[in-house]
Amino acid sequence: MKNLNLPTLKLDNNPDSHFESPFIEKNGLLEFNPELIKPEFLTNWTFETKLYGEIVSVDHFVITFPDRDALENYAESCRPFGAKTIEGPDLFPINFCVENVNVPSDLWLHLMTLLMPAGGLVVLDAPHAVGDQTHRFQQARGLTAVHHVALRVENVQEAAKIWQTKNFKPLSKRPLDAGTLTQWFLENPAGQIIELIERHPGNNATFDCKNIAGLRLSEDEGRREKEEGRRKKEEGRRKQVLNCPLK
């Protein structure tokens, strides 16, 4: 993966400023405001906003498209406004890393990353096959759904404490740390994912190949744990009903 020299995010430090955002919060989930994911807005956005009551610096977020053609057409419409393609388009992860990354084909996707003038990243993805994980996500929640937002933080461990008070639970037992890039996915009960990303000196890449398998599989691990919790809770309710004496 390229070691990109990403510029520092241009943030407005005025606490009274208005944080216009492409994100809409609905019942714990995030959706895009369709008017604010157009190139005209995103190429002028500061990548600073407020999410779940917290002022945050957005490192990157994902916009999903029905297919690779739609993905590339969107990227082309961003170029006149100063956006630069820094990754892809290509099949992720197998065509991004020379290492043998053991990720099931269900988790593959077409991926492209745009660097916006303010220094934030917009990741574009599309299913690589009908029925894969990305396709199922689109079918379940639609194209305006936000799969995840990555927040640039100074310390992943400390930031995770703040988000756990907002009812976000880590999807893996510990952060994924490749040595110079640390990432951690957290999820709330509604199923919304927030990624915390800490960029260490000397590594400004969009992701680290050593972290890929963990990043893609941690979501499935969290899903399995959640389903197991629901199953046990349902079994407990059934036993309670069966053991309840008749009046």
- Poorly predicted spans: 13-18
| Helical content class | 25-40%
> Could you tell me the mean pLDDT?
84
What letter string, H or E per element, gives the SSE order?
A: EEHEEHEEEHEHEEEEH
> Class by helix and strand content?
alpha+beta
Quaternary state reads single chain
* Total strand segments: 12
Sum up the overall morphology in one term: globular
- State Rg: 19 Å
End-to-end separation in angstroms reads 67 Å
Largest sheet: 10 strands, mixed
Q: Provide the β-strand percentage band.
A: 25-35%
Number of helices: 5
Fold and architecture overview:
Helix content is 26%, strand content 28%. The model is unreliable at 13-18 (pLDDT under 50). By secondary structure, it is an alpha+beta fold. It is globular, with a radius of gyration of 19 Å. The N and C termini lie far apart (67 Å). Strands 3, 4, 5, 6, 7, 8, 9, 10, 11 and 12 form a 10-stranded mixed β-sheet that branches. The protein has a two-stranded antiparallel ribbon with strand order 1-2. The chain has helices at residues 39-42, 68-78, 133-141, 156-164, 212-243; strands spanning 23-26, 29-32, 48-51, 54-64, 84-92, 109-115, 121-127, 148-152, 169-170, 176-177, 181-187, 193-199.
